[in-house]
Amino acid sequence: MVLRRIRNMVVATVNDNLDKMENPLVMINQYLRDMEEELSKARHAVAQQEAIKADFERRLTYSQKMKKKRYDQAQIAVNSGEEDLARKALMEMKQHEEKVLQYEEIYEQSVAQLVELKEQLGKLEERIQALRDKRHTLVARANVVKAKEHMNASINRIDSNSSYREFQRLEARIMDMETKANVYTAYNFGGEQTAFTKLEHEEDVEKELQKLKEVQKA
């Protein structure tokens, strides 16, 4: 008993999954969900790239400021006769100068990558929106198909229904009764006409006979 119930549950689950696989609307909705997940990932990637760009922009700005600051400090130290201090300031200036070059390159790359990601994101958003719009059309078409299938199934059920067949049998019987009644009426009406015609002929004969008798008397 338990095994039979388990088997029935498995069969029902498999059939349900098959129905879903064969249902185009289910597949369309699943495809849209997958696309929207990809869209979410793409937006997250764009946000991360914007954060990276902003970070290197801050680093670049800071290194540029420190480069200028150390250069100004070196000038002050030279003017004050502090050559060692000037050398130290110039050394740090060179370090910041290298960082400026490094950050400029990375910043430019991050900007280019961000532009590319945003373009891809825009295309993906347009494609998903087009699919959403098309989904409404497909849903409407699918509903029409379902309605037609339902009507066809209803008609088939009616055609195969014993009550409907009995109704057709009764209709045929009534038509047969109507035909017989019409024939009977026509027959009776025709018989009456024949009787009336016979009486009329007999009257004519009697009149003619009377005329002949009168002629003989004359």
TrEMBL record:
Keywords: Coiled coil. Residues 86-141 form a coiled coil. Belongs to the PspA/Vipp/IM30 family. This is Protein LiaH. It comes from Priestia endophytica.
